[in-house]
Automatic annotation (TrEMBL), chains A, B:
Residues 15-86 form the Transcription regulator PadR N-terminal domain. SUPFAM superfamilies: Winged helix' DNA-binding domain. Gene3D superfamilies: Winged helix-like DNA-binding domain superfamily/Winged helix DNA-binding domain (1.10.10.10). It comes from Virgibacillus siamensis. InterPro entries: Metal_resp_DNA-bind_regulator, Tscrpt_reg_PadR_N, WH-like_DNA-bd_sf, WH_DNA-bd_sf. This is PadR family transcriptional regulator. Transmembrane segments: none annotated.
Length: 116, 116
DNA sequence: AAACAATACCTTGCATTACAAGATATACAG
DNA sequence: CTGTATATCTTGTAATGCAAGGTATTGTTT
């Protein structure tokens, strides 16, 4: 078990959430995620993910000049991307509720939790 | 994106949590997880996971007669398993906090959240 | 100009793991 | 003896985070 395994299928939702807030470029996203408390994520993780999401038409990109270095590729959400973000939020919430229920040993049908 | 991707690295922690509570056998775990709200997980998921955890000495197993059907393999946690469960709880908490921070667009260094 | 560092993007190959599909075995009911 | 429910395991596939390595651009230093 490691933290990276727990990121699977969650990281893309996080990227969508950040991109929805404002236009971001890939290199910046790694820094952003660190600010949110994650261990630094390598570019080998983020770039393939962005390319995949663009292929799936969840995001679009436009190249803009950088102050220093090659052009940046800024991403923004499409309508489809917003819908996907919505679905992710649902799934994430669902997951949180269920896992926390397991950890507390409360079944989904517990209607009257016992009090001490 | 799918729910199954989000389960990676989380399911084993859930199994450890259930097993810690009481001795359980594999076939039962699938039913248990459904009770906790998860979509039914196939045995093709659970058995390999249990075997791996036993190999890693996180759980031990004893065979006991069943009322109907072949012998059941009951699992219990080892000391190492309890430690691993502890580590999982930390990682899970860490993940929850960070993801929810991203979704709210609050950085880890936001000390004074704005009020409206 | 040449060399270097920082910025920025991308590709290849590997390890992990949930899962479908299928195989095997036991016990009991009809 | 046949069928059904119980119970476990194996094989192969798909998804994806990541390390490692590669390329290109700009500004700074020598």
């Amino acid at each position: 078990m490691s933290t990276t395994q727990m990121m699977k299928g969650i990281l893309d939702g996080c990227l969508l959430a950040i991109i929805k807030d404002r236009e971001v470029y890939g290199y910046e996203l790694a820094e952003q995620l660190e600010m949110y408390g994650f261990d630094s994520l390598s570019e080998g993780t983020i770039y393939p993910l962005l390319l995949r999401m663009q292929k799936e038409e969840l995001v679009t990109s436009t190249r803009k000049k950088s102050t220093a270095g090659p052009k940046r590729k800024y991403y923004s959400l499409t309508k489809k991307g917003e819908q996907e973000l919505g679905k992710f939020l649902e799934r994430w919430n669902y997951l949180q509720v269920n896992v926390n229920r397991v950890l507390k040993h409360e079944t989904a049908t517990d209607q009257f939790p016992e009090r001490e």
